[in-house]
What we know:
It comes from Hoyosella subflava (strain DSM 45089 / JCM 17490 / NBRC 109087 / DQS3-9A1) (Amycolicicoccus subflavus). This protein is mostly loops. The protein is 8% helix and 7% strand. The chain has a two-stranded antiparallel ribbon with strand order 1-2.
Amino acid sequence: xxxxxxxxxxxxxxxxxxxxxxxxxxxxxxxxxxxxxxxxxxxxxxxxxxxxxxxxxxxxxxxxxxxxxxxxxxx
Length: 75
C-alpha cells in the first residue's frame, strides 16, 4: 500500500498545459475512479492505503531512457 501527499504532477492529463510543463508523476493514476471506491462520508478519493502491485523490471543499460509506467491493481 502507498500513501501520497496532496498535489503532485499532472502528467498524462492532457488538458492542463502549464501543469504538464512542470512535470511530475500523476498520482491520480494510482487511485481508482470507480464511484464505489471513494471515501464514504464525503465522497473523496482515497489518498492513503492505496493498494498497488509492484513488479521487478529487467535491468537496462545506461544508454536507455527510463519510461514511467503505472500498473493499477483492480483489487
